[in-house]
């Protein structure tokens, strides 16, 4: 089968950073589905792993943690899917990724693809939907019905995770949603997705909230550059509030939150698959719920750019754009 992989971690500018290869097809056993991949999207995690994680000597590392495809074979323990089903998923960090024609994935972290989206549109959503859902409802425990004027601040709202976070909040809760963006096109993007207010994250967020006379956010979700905003977040968040993040600041001094008794939550959507937690099937369940929201017309795809085919050249382009920090929504690749 065709795949795009690497043997040595490093910069995207390296000549061997991503290479098109041919390898043997895997075999489905146990709870695994063998999926013929139709479309994928690229996330910051792809670039982080490529730069920092090398496979064993002589082996290939295949990236990719967002895919849509068709079930081609099933393991003997599979009960949720059958051959021919169209599925979507983010996969597991400790297994080979979706930048390949065929991929093995545990059925318990797989959902049925929305019927109303094509493969390209659907590929933009799985990883970000899981991350946003788990942060909002598992980590921050945002209520579906909160007291009036309860607010949430989403920092980096125009990115892939932020884009789906705003939609889930507007469709499933009554919170006032404040998003941040710095460019005209990204401000317009999150306004279209439903943000009630948009702040410029290049300026003081606490000061902007005061100027708008907004209620202090009970919830703050930081998707990027948390270290740059931490003092600001500590100032603006409501006492006994809840703060969550998904990025990787070199230092995180949470003593800033002590006087307000703020709880701090880290979301890593690979935790359930990596540790085979007892509730691993929750990822399948939430993907099916998001799929229904899409088919009901309540959630829309966040794809903003499409590249074809899935090969090393186009994946290098996608990695370069992700690393530039200027991405709006999601970059999707389709077809081998």
From TrEMBL:
It comes from Acinetobacter haemolyticus CIP 64.3 = MTCC 9819. One of its GO terms (molecular function) is oxidoreductase activity. InterPro entries: ADH-like_N, ADH_Zn_typ-1, ER, GroES-like_sf, NAD(P)-bd_dom_sf, Zinc-ADH_QOR/CCCR. Residues 13-333 form the Enoyl reductase (ER) domain. Belongs to the zinc-containing alcohol dehydrogenase family. Quinone oxidoreductase subfamily. Gene3D superfamilies: Medium-chain alcohol dehydrogenases, catalytic domain, NAD(P)-binding Rossmann-like Domain. It comes from the Bacteria. Signal peptide: none annotated. PANTHER family: QUINONE OXIDOREDUCTASE. Keywords: Metal-binding, NADP, Oxidoreductase, Zinc. This is Zinc-type alcohol dehydrogenase-like protein.
